[in-house]
Amino acid sequence: MSDTTSGAAQAQIGVTGLAVMGRNLARNLARHGYTVALHNRSYSRTQSLVAEHGDEGTFVPSESMADFVASLERPRKVIVMVKAGGPTDAVIDELVPLLEEGDIVIDAGNAHFPDTIRREAALRERGLHFVGTGVSGGEEGALNGPSIMPGGTREAYASLGPILEDISAKVGGVPCCTYVGPDGAGHFVKMVHNGIEYADMQLIAEAYDLLRQGLGASAKEIGEIFARWNTGDLESFLIEITAEVLGHTDARTGSAFVDVVLDQAEQKGTGRWTVQNGLDLGVPITGIAEATFARSLSGSVPQREAARAALPAEAQPWDVTDRDAFVEDVRKALYASKVVAYSQGFDQIAAASAENGWDIDRGAMARIWRGGCIIRARFLDRITEAYERDPNLPLLLADEYFTAAVSEGVAAWRRVVAQAALHGVPTPAFSSSLAYYDGVRAERLPAALVQAQRDFFGAHTYKRVDAEGTFHTEWSGDRTESEA
């Protein structure tokens, strides 16, 4: 541990913004042998980090931004770890005048990727590198090894990448960090990661609800089911923590912990951004959308109170005669629906990559999500393998492995969604995922009627199955067809 001396360049990398994530990233860097410059708007937070964790490595604390910048070796590498939006812009505005050509600014917060594109362009004009970097794994990941998704220039990654790969999670010795693509690509991929996370969490919650209502099982019993699932194809961080949460007893009441938590799920915006972007791109990320709206519905308190008082259920009572078969059906439905969520997310990455010229390697994204991040799961290896077989794979579900895996569970998936509907259990993510599956595999969709309606009221034209060209029918006249 050392203190800043006037202008002495000592640190290899700096972190400004020392709330939990920034604090843990700084400690992770120090533990890996890097000399880390520290800065925070409130100097007391900087002091507390050094006092509590100074023995973990070499820190160079500074009270002012100017001293902080002066303590960094060139080219300077500065990680900004503050709240997304205005606070990030404020830090950048304070930092940039103190930097020199070739220095690197790393935004490791959950920035919205259009902001990253704007910031990267602005700093590039000043000769600076701006690296929008997704970091997943929460506070534990930040400390012990997260999944890291850096964008920006390849030149910046050549300098910065080895450090980020060093502190990232490792799976089989392979770092969970790789160059993603130019300007906003890193933060875009992190956004989609979070959207998939929303879908994954909602699907798990729906599986829990079905087991609770269908079997009348306790939270602890369902936790044991999830623990068993975590030894098979469903093995993942989220399944693992679900088993732990369901097995936890509330110290205050002695009840199952999940039963004393208010049933209103909040969100910080990344799921909403993912859905908005899916609409902009025209990519049907229905599982992610329904998961996001399910959180919104959970918080719609006046509407839910009004509905409880007025809306009849007309639902059948549960009568599960084969408990093991029901549990297995839910497991298969959960796996199939999870595959759909990931497939949709990777479709979104492909569409955005094409639109923005990012050239994102989808197989590499699956590889760096195998460790450190929230959606880490056993089957991410299978996704990487699918894109290695065909880098231009148009649909993950169409890969031979996933076709076989999902096909094996389709009958169970249908039974689960049907039973949920008959018994009045809301399963928006399960149901929409199955509807997507049936929609994408359908020989012909009723979209033909929708397009005919559009031509009728708005002369929006249509194409024919038996002729080239675009056509319009004179609906208000003699109904003759003409080529548009």
What is the overall number of helices?
21
Flag low-confidence runs: 1-7
Strand content: 5-15%
Largest sheet: 7 strands, mixed
Give the end-to-end Cα distance, rounded to a whole number of Å.
74 Å
Query: What multimeric state do the chains show?
Result: single chain
Name the structural class.
Answer: alpha/beta
Mean pLDDT: 95
The largest beta-sheet arranges its strands as: 3-2-1-4-5-6-7
Radius of gyration: 26 Å
Give the beta-strand count.
11
Shape: globular
**What proportion of the residues is helical, as a percent range?**
40-55%
Written overview of the protein:
This protein is α/β, with parallel strands linked by helices and 484 residues long. 54% of the residues lie in helices and 8% in strands. It has 21 helices and eleven strands. The protein has helices at residues 20-31, 43-53, 65-70, 86-95, 113-125, 138-144, 154-167, 185-215, 219-229, 237-247, 257-260, 270-281, 286-298, 301-310, 323-356, 362-368, 380-389, 400-407, 410-422, 428-441, 447-458, and strands spanning 13-16, 36-39, 59-61, 77-80, 104-107, 129-136, 147-150, 170-171, 174-175, 471-473, 481-483. The longest helix has 34 residues, at 323-356. It is globular.
Concise account of the structure shown:
The chain is α/β, with parallel strands linked by helices and 484 residues long.
Write the layout of secondary structure elements.
Elements: E1 13-16, H1 20-31, E2 36-39, H2 43-53, E3 59-61, H3 65-70, E4 77-80, H4 86-95, E5 104-107, H5 113-125, E6 129-136, H6 138-144, E7 147-150, H7 154-167, E8 170-171, E9 174-175, H8 185-215, H9 219-229, H10 237-247, H11 257-260, H12 270-281, H13 286-298, H14 301-310, H15 323-356, H16 362-368, H17 380-389, H18 400-407, H19 410-422, H20 428-441, H21 447-458, E10 471-473, E11 481-483
Parallel strand pairs: 1-2, 1-4, 2-3, 4-5, 5-6
Antiparallel strand pairs: 6-7, 8-9, 10-11
Helix pairs in contact: 1-6, 8-12, 8-13, 8-15, 9-10, 12-13, 13-20, 15-18, 15-19, 15-20, 16-17
